[in-house]
Specification:
By secondary structure, this protein is mainly α. The chain has one domain. Helix content is 68%, strand content 0%. The protein has eight helices and no strands. Helix 2 crosses helix 5, helix 3 runs parallel beside helix 7 and helix 5 crosses helix 6. The protein is globular. The two termini are 17 Å apart.
Length: 130
């Protein structure tokens, strides 16, 4: 069973890297384009988030009541291109339906990898019982 993890926000790598910061209006188009670029091919950035942002990943992905795919997409855009989360949320509507489905699918697979890395015994037991 995955237990919800808490740590001080100053430990969160997403916060440390500006995921929740404001930007100048003149920067908006640049960051929108970068978020779109990231979410069209998010595999590498999402994997880097779960490997390198240990505290932020554990804080956000251990919360089974939150929108973990959304956080992972926002974190990937921040990790890869320093895009703040509010810009990533805006960019979501600019993706095609197929691009959104693909990004969500990759996020689900990445979350599963993260879960297996923190609870390997739980997931091997579940697979044996199937």
């Amino acid at each position: 069973m995955i237990q919800k993890y808490y740590t001080h926000y100053k430990n969160w790598e997403d916060w440390q890297n500006g995921m929740y910061r404001d930007i100048n209006h003149s920067e908006k188009e640049y960051y929108l384009k970068k978020a779109i670029e990231c979410l069209r091919k998010p595999e590498k950035a999402m994997l880097n988030v779960i490997k390198k942002w240990k505290y932020a990943s554990k804080e956000n992905l251990s919360d089974l009541t939150s929108n973990r795919r959304s956080w992972l997409g926002q974190a990937a855009c921040c990790y890869q291109f320093n895009v703040p989360e509010h810009i990533t949320r805006e960019c979501w509507g600019k993706l095609t339906k197929e691009e959104r489905i693909n990004a969500n699918k990759i996020a689900e697979l990445t979350i599963k990898k993260w879960e297996e890395s923190i609870c390997p015994n739980l997931f091997s037991t579940l697979q044996e019982n199937e």
